[in-house]
Design brief:
The protein is mainly alpha-helical. It has helices at about 1-15, 20-35, 35-50, 55-65, 70-85. Helix 1 (about 1-15) runs antiparallel to helix 2 (about 20-35) and helix 3 runs antiparallel to helix 4 (about 55-65). The longest helix is centred in the first third of the chain and has 15 residues, at about 1-15.
Length: about 90
């Protein structure tokens, strides 16, 4: 579990550095090991950045089903939903 959390944190760091390939690789590793909320968030951001809004929303819905009080996930999901309704 700890290795999954660490990989999720690394994925967030890579995302902040705009190194999407590295972020994706670390997020996938985290999800393979156990699945951290950070990894799910990174996957959602990467999906959204590729125009896969519905898939990103689904990932965020999964994240929020496990961690309903995650403000970043909720804000991103609400933003993506509003964009799809336009």
């Amino acid at each position: 579990m700890l290795r999954s959390i660490v990989a999720g944190k690394r994925a967030l760091c890579w995302l902040a550095l705009e190194k999407d390939a590295n972020a994706s690789r670390e997020a996938e590793e985290s999800l393979r090991l156990w699945g951290s909320s950070d990894a799910r968030y990174v996957v959602a951001v990467l999906l959204a950045s590729r125009g896969k809004t519905r898939e990103a929303i689904a990932e965020l819905d999964s994240l929020l089903s496990l961690y309903p009080d995650d403000p970043s996930a909720r804000m991103l999901r609400d933003t993506l939903r509003a964009e799809t309704e336009r």
